[in-house]
Amino acid sequence: MAVRIRMKRLGRKHRPYYRIVAIDHRQPRDGRIIEELGTYDPMVKNTDERVRLRPDRIKYWMGVGALPSENVDVLLKKYMAKFEQKAAEAASLAQAPAAPQEPAAPTA
Questions:
Q1: Which residues contact 27 (CB under 8 A, 6 or more apart)?
Q2: Burial class (CB in 10 A: 0-12, 13-18, 19+), 17
Q3: What are the φ/ψ torsions at residue 73 (nearest 5 degrees)?
Q4: What are phi and psi of 61, to 5 degrees?
Q5: CB within 8 Å of 48: residues ≥ 6 apart
Q6: pLDDT reported for residue 47
Q7: 87: which residues sit within 8 A by CB, 6+ positions away?
């Protein structure tokens, strides 16, 4: 099965919204997907907030041979580093041991 990473259109007329998905290349644009990898909302004014990605899953699919479409490739080149950094920060916060709390002094 040849997997592509491409956009699936949602939303309504004159208000597009896209999901970035892993999908069999033979499926139609809005066909059955394998996995959702992110979103793209072109109507958001701030360009840095238009895209949401799951970098770990995108790397997995590209590692097993999935090819991104031309438009998705542009988004990945532009935003992937930002989301990888965000994921690394979240992982480092999860790994950091919590500071031990002192027990409360008993009151008489």
A1: 33
A2: middle
A3: -60, -40
A4: -65, -40
A5: 82
A6: 86
A7: 55, 56
